[in-house]
Design brief:
The chain has six helices and nine strands; from the N terminus they run αβαββββαβαββααβ. It has 216 residues and is an alpha+beta fold. The strands form two sheets. It has a seven-stranded mixed sheet with strand order 1-9-6-2-3-4-5. The chain has a two-stranded parallel sheet with strand order 7-8.
Length: 216
């Protein structure tokens, strides 16, 4: 009868290689977060803290947001912070009242509002937007529910027509653009249909009303 191999022996080169590869994304994510965090604190955090002090009179606590009756198509936006990897994040309310959002660990989640808010850190800010045309918002909400399963990968891809490779603000942009033609980007849909739809671009859209600003 063969003796059992000592711990660590019997692992093939291929297994060790895969173990090494699987660890690399974790290491790179730590480097990214450390670098992004340092730059964010240097160039953004001071300005944001000063702005936050001024907003204390207008921002409402999260309990008010939780008690609101959000409508299909409403957009919940969180500006850049550590919990959003310093890029900002947004989700859209579906017909079922859940928050649909494309996420790196998803690629798509459909969360209750309460659960969605737990994904963010203390001190994060939330801005809620609503389309000025109610039917447009309902159409967008219906679209995200019908197409969320088509999203297969979280990718910062420039192809504005691709649903399979997507990210949070692009998915919301598509929901409005593909149903009503409403362009939340604020610029023309180029013939090449290429570009990045940053969350702050949608924040600045003149086609949306601000329902309120909230802090956690």
């Amino acid at each position: 009868m063969k003796k059992s191999s000592p711990s660590g022996q019997g692992i093939t080169f291929i297994q060790r290689l895969f173990n090494h590869v699987n660890k690399k994304p974790i290491a790179w994510s730590k480097i990214y977060l450390a670098t992004a965090g340092a730059l964010h604190r240097l160039f953004v955090e001071g300005r944001r803290n000063r702005a936050a002090a001024r907003r204390k009179q207008q921002d409402m606590p999260l309990s008010v947001l939780k008690s609101m009756k959000l409508e299909p198509g409403d957009i919940v936006y969180t500006p850049s912070s550590e919990s959003t990897y310093y890029a900002g994040h947004m989700g859209i309310i579906g017909l079922d009242g859940k928050v649909y959002h494309v996420h790196p660990y998803g690629p798509v989640f459909a969360d209750t509002l309460d659960w969605y808010l737990t994904r963010f850190y203390e001190g994060d800010r939330f801005i809620v937007f609503r389309s000025k045309l109610r039917q447009v918002g309902i159409g967008a909400a219906e679209w995200v529910q019908e197409h969320c399963e088509q999203v297969k990968f979280y990718r910062l891809q420039t192809n504005l027509l691709s649903i399979e490779r997507n990210y949070c603000s692009k998915f919301i942009y598509q929901a409005y653009k593909f149903t009503s033609g409403l362009d939340l980007w604020g610029r023309k849909f180029t013939p090449m249909k290429q570009g990045f739809i940053y969350p702050f671009r949608i924040e600045r859209s003149s086609d949306l009303d601000v329902l309120g600003t909230f802090y956690k």
